[in-house]
UniProtKB/TrEMBL annotation:
Lineage: Bacteria, Pseudomonadati, Bacteroidota, Flavobacteriia, Flavobacteriales
One Pfam short name: CzcB_C
Protein name (record): Efflux RND transporter periplasmic adaptor subunit
Residues in CusB-like barrel-sandwich hybrid domain copies: 79-177
Residue ranges of every copy of the Heavy metal binding domain listed in the record: 1-21
Keyword rRNA-binding: no
Gene3D superfamilies: 2.40.30.170, 2.40.420.20, 6.10.140.730
Molecular functions (GO terms): transition metal ion binding
Gene Ontology biological process terms in this record: copper ion export; plasma membrane copper ion transport
């Protein structure tokens, strides 16, 4: 066939005698995808016909789930210190984690300073009984040095000083550290490494300095649950919210409390913020160190939400693929709370904007995404 032969009706070619073939009509121009779209780089424009979705404004009640641990309420820690310098004559507690009660005698101490104060008091009683001001002053000094009032009356009747003075506990609980180790990391390591019946570092015959910490007593009846809140849930947790705490070893011992304090910092090596729930542990007696699950009832909030599948995280930035003529463009958005399969959008989109319902279908693993703001 000779293409230069053109006719407006069916006939044969005058050169070769073959039938002329009908020529097709020109193709229609497509209004959707253009050549310019196909030539754009894949890191800022994607040609696709994926389903799209818009922002939905909803009031979603939220529950934040967290993990935590039961620990001592450090506000209830009691410290017994030496008011005087002296030697331990008798020790009545023998091992760590030994239970003591308020008013219990824990040791006897010999102190030259206290012995001299007793002798001065007895001298005034014997030789200057009418000098009530000096006698009261000497008696007050003995009290300030830690001598019980009953013992002062006893030496006054006997007319003879006592060589040792008892030291009583002002707190109830369990001894966990001794000998000035309360605030050191070494104390924590020793407590974790040693068994419950490990002996105390204090011994009879050892000398104490004035003001030295003798014992630190922890009260397990007043405890707190330390809950780890992940960064995406921080906006949903505030002081005063109701919390259900479920011990992992005994779910039947669950209890309710409130968020009493949220630590305003991230602990070293942690990506969570710690929330404290104070509670009375005298009845439940949940062991210290118990791992717990927590359900924090958060406040409902009306906000703009998208499915989590519509969001792609680039680390510091979050993006969606916004609908554009013939395809999608990567678009940066600001996000807030995450509740189950939805994520709050706080900035970057208007109510009428359409985005890809599943953004991961538009990801190219071999290219970087360039976002538009």
């Amino acid at each position: 066939m000779h293409p230069e032969i053109i006719s407006d009706k069916p006939e044969k070619c005058p050169k070769c005698g073959m039938d002329l073939v009908l020529k097709d009509a020109p193709a229609k121009k497509e209004d959707g995808i253009k050549l310019d779209d196909l030539l754009k780089p894949t890191n800022n424009y994607v040609v696709s016909q994926l389903p799209v979705i818009r922002l939905s404004k909803e009031n979603i009640p939220t529950t934040v789930e967290a993990l935590g641990v039961i620990d001592y309420d450090t506000r209830q820690i009691g410290t017994i210190s030496s008011r005087i310098a002296g030697r331990i004559e008798k020790l009545y507690v023998r091992y760590k984690f030994q239970k003591v009660s308020k008013g219990q005698r824990i040791l006897d101490i010999y102190s030259p300073e206290l012995l001299t104060a007793q002798q001065n008091h007895l001298f005034l009683l014997k030789n200057d009984r009418s000098n009530s001001m000096m006698i009261n002053a000497s008696r007050q000094k003995l009290l300030l040095l830690g001598m019980p009032a009953s013992q002062i009356q006893s030496i006054s009747r006997k007319g003879k000083p006592d060589l040792s003075v008892p030291v009583f506990s002002n707190y109830s609980g369990y001894i966990q550290s001794a000998g000035g180790m309360a605030n050191s990391s070494q104390a924590d390591d020793v407590m974790q490494a040693n068994s419950v019946t490990a002996e105390l570092p204090l011994k009879e015959g050892m000398y104490l300095q004035k003001g030295e910490n003798i014992f630190t007593i922890y009260n397990p009846s007043r405890s707190w649950a330390l809950l780890n809140i992940f960064a995406e849930d921080i906006a949903l947790v505030s002081k005063g919210q109701s919390v259900a705490v479920i011990p992992q070893n005994d779910p039947s011992s669950r209890f309710k409390g409130t968020v009493d304090f949220i630590e305003p910092f991230f602990r070293p090596g942690s990506k969570t913020v710690t929330a404290r729930v104070y509670f009375d542990n005298s009845v439940a007696k949940i062991p210290i160190g118990t791992q717990v699950n927590a359900e924090i009832a958060s406040h409902s909030k009306v906000a703009d939400w998208l499915p989590k599948t519509a969001i792609v995280s680039l680390g510091m930035d979050k993006i969606v693929f916004k609908k554009a003529p013939g395809g999608f463009t990567a678009h940066k958005v600001g996000t807030g709370a995450i509740v189950k399969d939805k994520i709050e959008i706080v900035s970057g989109l208007e109510p009428g904007d359409e985005v890809a319902e599943n953004a991961r279908y538009l990801m190219d693993s071999e290219s970087f995404i360039k976002v538009t703001k």
